[in-house]
Amino acid sequence: MRRDGKPSYLCQIARKKDGKTVRENRTFRDHKTAKAWLRQREAELDNPKAFKAATQEIRTLGDAIGRYVEEHGGEIGKTKSACLAAIQRHSIAGMACGDVGSEDIVAFARTIHTVTGLAAPGPATINNYLSHLASVFAIAQKAWGYPLDQEAMSDATFVLRKQQTIAKSKQRSRRPSLDELDSLLAYFQERTERAPHSAPMVDIILFAVFSTRRMEEITRIRWADFEPAGKQAARVLVRDMKNPGAKKGNDIWCELPAEAATVIERQPKTGEMIFPYTVDAIGSAFTRTCKVLAIEDLHFHDLRHEGVSWLFEAGWNIPHVALVSGHRSWASLQRYAQLRQKDDKFAGWKWRPAL
To answer: Which CATH number do you get for residue 78?
Structure first.
């Protein structure tokens, strides 16, 4: 019986041959699937090679994670890679795949802070780690024969959600005020005057706001990806745009508001990239400066939210905003539906790129 009151079926296999024993167990939600797995696994163990492999190799959860990263590393993002690397440092990674039960996953979720460096990760953060771990559970048995139990992961998730240990991320609504933007841009302008070769954070911040582009996307834009305005609005090819269904090769042409196009056009053509700087350099500079200026709880990604909000407040409709932001689903933009046209927030603003 599972914790939600529904039945579960435990299958156990024990085979002995030439003094060696193979013991395996799996749980299933329905009796038919349990019997099918039992027949299939017994038939597999009748094969001498399969029996030998089962007795010689004890795969750990860490092995499964390592193989997942090895085979899918080019498809997963930086955040997921970092989460899986942290899980490999946890004691659960040393457990044999067949021994990992729902109680072990629950215990892992409650002690994940020991490997993340976060004193008290919130429910949304823990949920992200569980989600990435679930990706490994989803294919380990089917792809490699590693006996990770998807039912155990499902049951653990059910318990953790009921106990509010995990939860989906709340949508942020943080927008920078004009005073905060003024402080940031004045600080970075002074830095550029002192260190001309540092990243042009003034233009990077302005471009992030008026183009609605993410930090990672900004660092990937080439001069060849930019088409200035002609008969149609300026546009830019956004490479590998974030999309749950496609981590790589998701290249989308996005319209550029005139302010964003102006920022690009005033950049020096010193190489292939328009903004030849790393995500780490830009992110660190932004975060560090917010601390210096005592600007609380402002993330670089909030600049994208600001830009999208500004477009709606300027009277743009959902399809037009989507052409700029790159949202594939208009439903993702419904959160902005309450915004109504009002005075342009950036009208007369001294930092607004001259058109």
So the answer is: 1.10.150
61, 95 contact by CB (below 8 A): yes
- Which residue is associated with the tokens 């059910």? 158
Tokens representing residue 68 in the block = 């997942």
Q: Is residue 79 part of a domain?
A: yes
- Clarify whether residues 65 and 51 are in a common domain: no
Does one domain contain both 282 and 315? yes
Tokens of 83: 């989460």
- The model's confidence at residue 255, banded by pLDDT at 50, 70 and 90, is very high
The residue written with tokens 């089917």 in the block is 142
Sign of CA dihedral 257, 259, 265, 271: negative
* DSSP H or E run through 288: helix 279-292
Q: Partners of 13 in the beta sheet?
A: 24
Residue-wise pLDDT tens digits, 64-112: 999 999 888 777 777 888 899 999 999 999 999 989 999 999 999 999 9
Inter-CA distances, 315 with 15, 274, 319, 321, Å: 70, 30, 12, 10
Strand intervals (E) in the chain: 9-17, 20-28, 226-227, 235-238, 252-255
Q: Calculate the alpha carbon distances from 269 to 206, 209, 223, 227, 326 in Å.
A: 19, 22, 8, 15, 26
Interior/surface letters 308-341, b for 16+ CB within 10 angstroms, e for the rest? bbbbbbbebebeebbbbbbbeeeeebeebeeeee
Q: Domain range holding 122? A: 58-170
Identify the three-state secondary structure at position 16.
strand
Per-residue burial over 171-189, b = 16 or more CB atoms within 10 Å of its CB, e = otherwise: eeeebbeeebbebbbebbe
pLDDT digits (tens, 9 = 90+) for 8-49: 788 888 888 877 777 777 777 788 888 888 888 888 888 887
Last residue of a domain, one of 118, 147, 170: 170
